[in-house]
Specification:
Elements (H helix, E strand, L loop, with lengths): L6 H5 L15 E7 L1 H6 L1 E12 L8 E6 L8 E8 L2 E8 L8 E6 L8 E12 L8 E4 L15 E7 L6 E3 L2 E9 H6 L1 E7 L2 E7 L8 E4 L15 E8 L6 H13 L2 H6 L3
Parallel strand pairs: 1-9, 11-15
Antiparallel strand pairs: 2-7, 3-6, 4-5, 8-9, 10-11, 12-13, 14-15
Length: 269
């Protein structure tokens, strides 16, 4: 459940019944989704706790509205205090009517005269393809109910994308690493590279060096605002063999005799 805002002012402390309509406060909901759902889009049902119009009194707070007896309709109350420096008079908002000058004689028993109640609601949220970590969706009118007929606030769904075990994302492009053997890098091969919609075959030319990056056009993330797609970049990692058998060692010894790396290293000096 995400953070909810606006409950404290309505349910804690003084009752507020200003005569002018007031817009309800906005709410926030944090939603975690898998990497694939962010790439392709999805639909989720979330449950939020919010303030809704009281069904018993239809948001009126009760019946029998009259002039507030505490402030005599002024909306403020005064206080006089004698101090060593003289007499000080202060005015504060009336705690009975919340500054409106009007009070309800028969407050609603369900909402206590507030006109709004706490409730839970299930809401369907459409997640568009290409949404990124930290993006938010605005659902108009799904926040807290307004007071005195005021409009409801909005609900902001903040999306957090879970990391993927194979892919890393940068905008609409995704990156991955593919291990290949020493012989495959030296002789060349065809490699099946995982993508978001299945495997794609990449031709690895002979003599490919570790760290070489191959680009698969259009195999990335769909643009959030548009129809284009990013690219997938596959980085080749040549793995040095470990725990070689006797035959493997003999073969590499033969290869070593044919190599000219000593002459190549002399160039550094």
């Amino acid at each position: 459940m995400g953070d909810l805002f606006g409950f404290g002012g309505a349910f804690g402390g003084r009752q507020q019944r200003k005569s002018a309509p007031r817009r309800g406060s906005d709410l926030r909901f944090d939603l975690n989704i898998p990497f694939e759902e962010a790439a392709f889009g999805t639909e989720r049902t979330i449950e939020v706790e919010r303030l809704e119009q009281c069904g018993e009194c239809k948001g009126a707070g009760g019946s029998g509205e009259e002039t507030c007896y505490q402030c005599k309709g002024s909306g403020v109350t005064g206080k006089t205090q004698r101090t060593p420096f003289g007499i000080f008079s202060t005015q504060t908002t009336c705690g009975k009517c919340g500054g409106s000058g009007r009070a309800i004689r028969n407050p609603c028993k369900k909402c206590g005269g507030l006109g709004i109640v706490r409730a839970r609601k299930k809401i369907k949220v459409k997640i568009p393809a290409g949404i990124d970590n930290g993006n938010h969706l605005r659902l108009g009118g799904e926040g807290n109910s307004g007071a005195k007929g005021g409009p409801a606030g909005d609900l902001f769904v903040v999306v957090f994308v879970e990391p993927h075990k194979l892919f890393k994302r940068d905008g609409v492009d995704i990156f991955t690493e593919m291990p290949i053997s020493f012989s495959e890098a030296a002789l060349g091969t065809k490699l099946d590279v995982p993508t978001l919609d299945g495997a794609a075959t990449v031709k690895i030319p002979p003599g490919t060096q570790s760290g070489t990056i191959f680009r698969l056009k259009g195999k990335g993330i769909r643009q959030l605002r548009g129809n284009g797609y990013g690219d997938l970049y596959a980085k080749v990692i040549v793995e040095t063999p470990r725990g070689m058998s006797r035959k493997q060692r003999e073969l590499f010894e033969e290869i070593k005799k044919e190599e000219n790396m000593r002459e190549e290293r002399k160039r550094f000096f």
